C-alpha cells in the first residue's frame, strides 16, 4: 500500500508540533513496511531534513507553488466573510494539476490541516479539483486544532473549510472533539474518527535500548519486569519468573520479563536459564515472555548499567527475591523510575530499604545475620503465589500514577495507535 502525506510544509523544523505528528506517522508506516510518500511545498528545503525524515525509504514529492513562473503567496482565509484574491481559482487549478501528477499512483492520502487551516484554502480547493481525476484514492482529513464554528451563510470557495469531500474520513486527536468536527464539515458523526497523537518513547531512547527493542517488545506489556544481576542462584531469578507466571495466570494480561544478566562461575548459564524458563512456564508464562539479554549477541557479556537504569523508565514492576543483599542498589534505581517494588522480607537489607520505600513484601528463603531461613508455604507455594499475584495486580491498578505510566507507555505508543486506529482507516 502506498500512502501519501499531504502537508504542504514549507520547512521541517521540529519545534512545529505538526512536524512531529507527521514524523511519528511516518515511523508507524516504516515499521509496518508501508511506503510513505511526503508531499510538501516545492519551497520546502528537504536537503536540511533531520531524524526520521532522512530515512531513504521515504519518497519526497514537491507540489508546485508557482504559476506562470511567479511564486504563489498563500493568504489566510480563516474569516468566512473574506473575499479571495483575483488569481485564486487559476492558482488552485495549477496546484490541482500538480497534485494529480503526484497522487496518481497512491492508494490513500492523509491530509494534515489542509481542510482546516485558512491559509491552506488554496490547497483545500485544489485537492477537491484533483480528486475528480483520482476516484480510487481514500482520503483522511486530519484536523489538529479545535474545530471551527460553522457559519450560517458562507459562499464558495470559503465554504470549502466547512464542506465535506467525497471518499473522505475526518479525523481528530480525541473522541471528545468528534461532534464539533462533524458540525464544522457538515458530515455524519459516522464519518468522523479519533486517531490519538502518540508518544514515541523509543525516539528518545539510547542505542542500547533501541537495539534491545528490536528483539523484545518494551512498550505493549501490561507488566514489564526488569531484573538485572549476575546469573547466580543466589539472585533467585526463578522466583521472579514464578511470580510473573502467577500474575499472568491470574490476570491473563501481557507480561514481559527481561533478565539483564551476565555470566557467573557459580553455575552453568545455560543450565540455570533452562531451569528459570521451566519455572516460569510451569507457573503460567509462555516461552516468549522471558528474555535474557545475554542471549543477544551485543549483550552476551552483560547489558550496560546505564541501559538498565533507562529500562526502569519503561518497566512498572520490580521483583527482588534475592537470597542475600548488603544493600540493594537496584531497588533504589527501580524505585526512582516509578516501579512497584516487591521485595524479599526475610533479607534484612531489603526489609529495611523496603520499609523506607513503602514496598510490597513477600517471603522467600534468605540469608540472615548468623542464620539462614527456609520458607514453607501452606497449603502450597502455588497458592501463595496466586494470592500475592492477585494483591500485586490490584495494588498496581489502584495506583493512579503507576497506572498512568503504564497506559502512557502501551496505550499511546505509535504501534498501538497505528494498528488500532490509523491503519484500519487506511485499509477500510
UniProtKB/TrEMBL annotation:
InterPro entries assigned to the protein according to its UniProt record, in alphabetical order: Glyco_trans_1 (IPR001296)
Full protein name: Glycosyl transferase family 1
Annotated signal sequence range: none
Record-linked Gene3D superfamilies: Glycogen Phosphorylase B (3.40.50.2000)
Source species, domain of life: Bacteria
GO molecular function: glycosyltransferase activity
Keyword annotations from UniProtKB, A to Z: Transferase
Pfam families linked to this entry: Glycos_transf_1
Domain Glycosyl transferase family: 220-352
Species of the source: Aquisalibacillus elongatus
